[in-house]
Amino acid sequence: MKTIVCVLLLFFIGCGIASLHGGAPRYRLNKRDTKHVTRHRVAHLNSRHSYLSDQELAEDDDSKEEQKGYLMEHLHHNHGDYFMDITIGEPAQHFKVLLDTGSSNLIVPSIHCKSRACLLHRRYNPDKSKTYRPIQQYQSLIEESPRIKRNGKVAIKFQTGKITGEASIDKVCIEDQKGCVPHHLFVAINKESEHPFANLEFDGILGLSLPEQSLNRRSHFLSNLQKVTNTENLFSIYLNNQEKHDNRSSLLIGGVEPSLFVEKTLNYFPINDKKRWQVKLTSVHVGGKSVGICEDNGGCNAIVDTGTYSIAANPKFVVKMLKALKFAGNCDQTEELPPISFKFGDVHYSLDPSEYVIHTKGNRKVDKLITKLNRRRGKVRRRKNKCAPALLPLKGLHENTIILGEPFLKKYYTIYNLDQRKVGIALAKHDAEDFE
Fold it and tell me: pTM for the whole thing?
């Protein structure tokens, strides 16, 4: 689906790096095994709770620590999803949330949700949290957000599912209270579609996209955390590509980690969308030759998204890529494939076949496209050990827009600057020994 959303803060090198990670607390992100990708990711309010006043919210903005800090969270990984540990309320209720730079809200299942997808995950119970506040008692937050109804209800639709829930306010912390927002507005899910949520390893989603995509000013977690911890308003993400070092993927809030990327390869690109980490893409190349996708559509846009396990694009875009690759879909042909590269400005960012080809177990959409193209070429022999490029056709995307997910992010270190509205991309180091 998917922040997942994004979370390391940056410093400037060459074109302007501003702060280093120096002795910052470290957090962990979990990941899902991508050898066999099987899917695409993407409260009852009780009046007994106390009133959340304007003064309380103002205190959140003024409660900065004296010194700037850096928060590093190591990520968990499983089946293409990168997720991290958070807590909500007091006493703390623990959740694993997808790190999704493609959305901007925090959503977790509520104890009042009876959908099968909710029952398979940990659920938030507002009645057990002394710091919980019902949104109905703070009408100004409802009035400033057209997406929150007067009764506090919220509906959110994803590419592959939908949820309904209630806007709630409570204390939200990153792993073991290392970084907390005292009064954060999030969505407690009352109902969610079985697909894809029932099969997800994580409980909810932590959106790391731009504040303009969030419900309102109180629901953008990074902005709220920056006000409390006095960190810089940026973050950076490193996704490890080595299975033996599963705990090295990380999110750094308030700085960048120079030991994790090649500094001379760092370039910044301005975002061209008000709500998403989207940058202008000049062209797409296969084997050093442009496939004409961007030229035919008056230019392209690329969305950098940790919540997508593949490179997602409109079906027409995907078919053009498959035709240019001329890949019959057998795993033993992988080494013969050409590199794919994405050109931003004058800079090419390439992926070798070993970095973009996956086993197609469960990836039926791409598998069907390859089979169809093979028949047109007169190749009707049954495929063994099916493989395919990690391309995901999504009908809802514009023909000139692609989503750069896990294959791209595992090779390149990315930096997200909220204040300057730009994305930094650099070649990641995967022999770094900085994790202990």
Answer: 0.81
